[in-house]
Design a protein that fits this description.
The complex is a heterotrimer of chains A (about 400), B (about 190) and C (about 180).
Chain A: E1 20-24, E2 36-42, E3 45-52, H1 60-64, H2 73-77, H3 84-99, H4 105-134, H5 138-158, H6 178-202, H7 206-212, H8 220-225, H9 231-234, H10 242-245, H11 266-290, H12 309-314, H13 316-327, E4 334-343, E5 346-355, E6 362-366, H14 368-372, H15 376-379, H16 385-394, H17 399-403
Antiparallel strand pairs in A: 1-2, 2-3, 4-5, 5-6
Chain B: E1 23-25, E2 28-30, H1 33-42, E3 47-51, H2 54-63, E4 86-90, H3 98-107, E5 113-117, H4 119-123, E6 144-146, H5 153-169, H6 178-187
Parallel strand pairs in B: 3-4, 4-5, 5-6
Antiparallel strand pairs in B: 1-2
Helix pairs in contact in B: 1-5, 2-5
Chain C: H1 6-17, E1 21-23, E2 31-34, H2 40-49, E3 57-65, E4 73-81, E5 86-94, E6 100-102, H3 111-122, E7 125-127
Parallel strand pairs in C: 2-5, 6-7
Antiparallel strand pairs in C: 1-2, 3-4, 4-5
The chains are: A mainly alpha (about 400), B alpha/beta (about 190), C alpha/beta (about 180).
């Protein structure tokens, strides 16, 4: 219950009181994505709500049963499209777990750089859009400029800005060009100053703090019951991070902190995301320092990794491997694997049941947004309408991941 | 912003747009009404960003200072269909969303243009499934298609410039013509006032 | 923060519930146990509340369709104990048309939407669920689309020619379907 304003009692014999039903969405500027909330309000205060989702249901799990493993990567892009490289890497690491492929350290460190850049991009958009919903547009404009720089780095590596389809099962499709490292260095020089400016606008800003402190507080027990993960959970005080709990892709070699909040309100979620951005910058710097000096960009498993095209056209063995991999004649074990990575919103899990064929028998995505968005109608009970908008922004609900 | 040096960047003189054909004199310019109206509409299209998925993020990049959508007159995004000129459908439209898109389109006042951004809005994109509408032209008439997955902001600007061309050269009576009415009839879209 | 092993979990479970089908050393991931569907709420509640095990987080819940088996549907629960840093996979097989199983909402509130999704995709009825209706598909859909007998594409669409996609009667393209 927000302490900002006490409910004004109306004289009981004077006015008829009845509740107002308000339809928030699915096309609404403040819901970033299409989902609908029908809320019942008593004046300006919300009594209850019903969520409807599925307006962008694209049947990912059904599509995945009809596509080969390497064809599912562009599909995973489009789940959490603000940080698509993390989804890609999550899928690749899942398939590598199934096939028993061990990637060399250089590939792991390159993957970590990509994933942390994606995490920066995702968090930075979420926090700046939270500010936009509270009325402060300037931060968003500053921050999108930095996101353009991240797009440029991804473009040099994989050719695409947003839905990257970056990497392949076993590593990367080609070695990173030198210019991508140069752009990365320039980014690491310029980003901290720009992001510090953005933080200075809002972190100790009286108006922003009034809008976000004690708005939508979440207790740790509530968060665990409702399956919260990611920054929303860490804002409540629980320091569960998949990168530390079940390290993948050599995250155990890196030294970073997990920022946690105390009350789990909107302000804490905002601060936790910003702190995670600083930690990500730190991790990228460490990865660049620790990068091994070799030139390898993929694991040495010719059974699963496509050979370079020059060899396919000139070498019989490479041609045979190319044919076998594309046509699905490679040995795929029968079994099931569950692997999760720390996405922008929390634990992004992949449950893969393989029947030995070219396509998965069943692929289930554990989508963090879908699981914690259930709690939204509970969290806004008793809040004002403008608080409800700010809570929705701070939860970082991405429609692609919600409906999959 | 702290990383850009404003003092030393070159200042370019803006290029003026070419005026329509007409008679110019001391303090007046005479031309055809539809050309003046076309000019006014062209440079002040207010978009309704119907952003559903990934293409919506490219639209956010388009609004950012790097690509600057506002210089095309689209400074004010109108989220209310009653006040918008151009419906930009960006992202996948599922069958559940179809009736809502149609309702939004019906609420827009004439003249209205529709820009279908992204492969999903044009034809269903990579999602050839039971739950995705295979192109928004199944339910509303579309003026310009912008392919891509997602299209770069420059491509979306290209699409908007094509809509600007359409807006500039459209006759004043087009929206009342029988051909246009037949088009709306074929989609089952009700025409409100004559 | 003790690290417990799969054997410890199995011992606790057999002590409480008797013999349980399991596969102890999964090469890739958590231990899988198979329990009868009537006991799902009991077992998961025990796992959550037991002081030694503390499986206090439901990671995910999904369904799988096996059309050739007698028990056509599997419901798979993934649990995670943060305190002991260990995961567990629980499977229940259900038969019947429509198959029924008890809802987990009383134990973990996040199972609410996950069960609705499983119902939407497979038609598995969760008894005791407060609001079991479709969540992702359109409300008036009559089929359960993730079942293996239904195709991926909408066969009534007119703008795509299936022969161009290799999806036709030609058996040569069978393995690409």
């Amino acid at each position: 219950m927000s302490n900002i304003q006490k409910h004004i009692p109306l004289p009981s014999d004077d006015l008829e009181t009845e509740t107002v039903t308000l339809n928030l969405g699915p096309t609404h500027p403040a819901t970033h994505g299409i989902f609908q909330n029908v809320i019942e309000m008593d004046g300006e205060r919300i009594l209850s709500g019903v969520s409807t989702i599925g307006y962008i249901h694209r049947a990912f799990e059904k599509i995945a049963e009809h596509r080969a493993f390497y064809q599912i990567t562009p599909l995973t892009d489009r789940m959490n499209y603000c940080s698509s490289p993390i989804n890609n890497m999550g899928w690749h690491t899942t398939v590598e777990k199934l096939l028993g492929i061990k990637t060399p350290k250089r590939v792991d460190y390159l993957r970590i750089i990509i994933m942390e850049l994606a995490r920066i991009a995702d968090h930075v958009v979420c926090t700046s859009v939270l500010a936009v919903d509270a009325g402060a547009l300037t931060g968003f404009l500053y921050v999108m400029q930095q996101r353009e720089k991240i797009y440029e780095i991804w473009q040099e590596i994989c050719g695409s800005r947003l839905t990257t389809n970056i990497g392949r099962i076993g590593g990367f499709e080609r070695n990173w060009p030198d210019i991508s490292f140069q752009k990365l260095e320039i980014f690491l020089d310029g980003f901290p100053k720009a992001f510090a400016e953005f933080e200075k606008l809002l972190t100790n800003n009286r108006i922003f703090m009034d809008r976000t402190r004690n708005v939508g507080p979440v207790t740790p027990e509530f968060a665990m019951q409702y399956g919260f993960t990611g920054p929303n959970l860490r804002a409540t005080g629980i320091d569960y991070d998949v990168r530390v709990a079940n390290p993948y892709s050599s995250y155990e070699d890196f030294d970073f902190e997990i920022p946690v909040g105390t009350k789990g309100d909107t302000y804490d979620r905002f601060r936790v995301r910003n702190e995670e951005v600083w930690q990500s910058v730190n991790i990228i710097k460490q990865a660049l320092q620790k990068m091994p000096d070799t030139d390898e960009f993929t694991a040495d498993v010719p059974d699963y990794v496509l050979p370079p095209k020059e060899e396919v056209y000139n070498n019989m063995e490479a041609l045979i491997y190319q044919f076998k991999i594309i046509m699905g004649e490679v040995p795929v074990p029968v079994g099931e694997v569950y692997h999760s990575v720390e996405g922008g919103n929390g634990e992004l899990g992949f449950y893969l049941i393989s029947d030995g064929g070219r396509k998965p028998y069943r692929l289930h995505f554990r989508r963090p947004c879908f699981i914690y968005y259930q709690a939204y109608t509970e969290m806004v009970k008793g809040c004002l309408l403008s608080d409800a908008i700010v809570i929705l922004s701070s939860m970082n609900v991405i429609a692609g991941e919600l409906d999959a | 912003m702290s990383d850009q040096n404003i003092i030393d960047s070159p200042v370019r003189k803006p290029t003026l747009a070419a005026p329509p054909e007409g008679v110019e004199g001391e303090g007046f310019f005479a031309t055809r009404l539809d050309q003046v109206v076309g000019l006014a509409r062209k440079y002040s299209l207010w978009p309704l960003p119907f952003a559903t998925s990934c293409c919506g993020i490219e639209f956010m990049s388009l609004m950012s200072p790097h690509f600057d959508f506002a210089r095309f007159g689209c400074e004010r995004m109108s989220f209310s269909p009653r006040q918008a000129d151009m419906l930009m459908v960006m992202g996948t439209i599922a069958k559940k969303m179809g009736p809502i898109l149609k309702q939004v389109y019906e609420q827009m006042a004439e003249p209205r243009w529709v820009l279908s951004v992204g492969a999903c809005a044009c034809s269903g994109g990579i999602f050839d499934t039971y739950s995705v509408l295979q192109g928004i032209d199944q339910i509303i008439p579309v003026d310009v298609y912008v392919p891509g997955c997602p299209p770069r902001p420059e491509q979306i600007i290209d699409g908007v410039m094509m809509i600007q061309q359409l807006a500039e050269n459209e006759g004043l009576r087009r929206r009342n013509s029988p051909k246009y009415k037949a088009l709306l009839e074929s989609y089952g879209i009700k025409i409100l006032n004559g | 923060m003790a690290e417990i092993t799969n054997q410890v979990i199995l011992d606790n479970l057999t002590a409480q519930f008797g013999e349980i089908a399991h596969s102890l050393n999964e090469p890739w991931g958590p231990m899988s146990i198979r329990i009868p569907p009537e006991k799902n709420v009991e077992v998961i509640q025990f796992l959550r509340d037991d002081a030694g095990l503390q499986f206090s987080f439901l990671t995910t819940l999904c369904g799988v369709h096996y059309p050739e088996r007698k028990e056509k549907f599997d419901i798979v629960y993934h649990l995670h104990s943060w305190v002991n840093s260990i995961r567990l996979r629980i499977k229940c097989s259900v038969a019947g048309e429509p198959p029924h199983v008890q809802s987990l909402v009383s134990v973990f509130k996040c199972a609410n939407w996950m069960e609705r999704e499983t119902y939407d995709f497979f038609g598995i009825i969760f008894d005791g669920h407060p609001n079991l209706k479709r969540i992702l598909n359109v409300d008036d859909m009559t089929i359960f689309p993730m079942r293996k007998e239904y195709p991926l594409e909408d066969n009534t669409r007119i703008d795509k020619d299936d022969t161009m996609f290799g999806r036709d009667e030609n058996p040569f393209y069978q393995h690409l379907r």
